Amino acid sequence: MKMYQIYEIRRCKSYVESEEVNSIGIKNFILGKLSEGYIVCWLHYEVLFGKMKNSAFVFYNGNDPDFERYLVELRAFNENEELRIWRRMGTFFYRYRKDNEGEENEYIDAEQVMFGTKSEGSNDSFHKITESKGIEYYLPSEFLNGKTLSPKTQRLILHTRNYIGYNDFGQAGFVDSRFLKIKAEEV
Questions:
Q1: What residue ranges do the domains of the chain occupy?
Q2: Whole-number Å distance between alpha carbons of 150 and 114
Q3: pLDDT tens-digit profile of 138-156?
Q4: Model pTM?
Q5: Which of 21, 39, 49, 75 is nearest to 138 (CA)?
């Protein structure tokens, strides 16, 4: 990855829907929209990474979070679509976005370095990611592509797609962003 790279504006079709979601049965709602991919959950007490496989959630050590009670925000994603759910004033809302359908959009793909400089295999499906600052989380092994993080040569990179919109004066700005993938890359 080149840190000095200038981002290129591209175009794609993108379908978007959003509204309020009933807090009862959030897990079924998520899997009804997106059955294969990955998930990041910001809970009141931790950030939890997992995967969705065969219309089921897989979290480290069989964790089964109580979304209705502890969820602050989540992003369920794959390279083509994302479902984002967040809580505001006790009510859950969602935004679902799928590329290659819907209206034409401009976007910029970006890459952000994530916290975590060391990894160790915790089990077959997840790796423990740590950093000397006290950061610790478990990430699906697929993101590491069989690699072990090295603080000086490899980092985890979050790939995002940032959609561009224009206000009434023609000024451009980002109107939405979605996760595409996480990958271990040379830096």
A1: 10-186
A2: 13
A3: 999 999 877 778 777 788 9
A4: 0.90
A5: 49
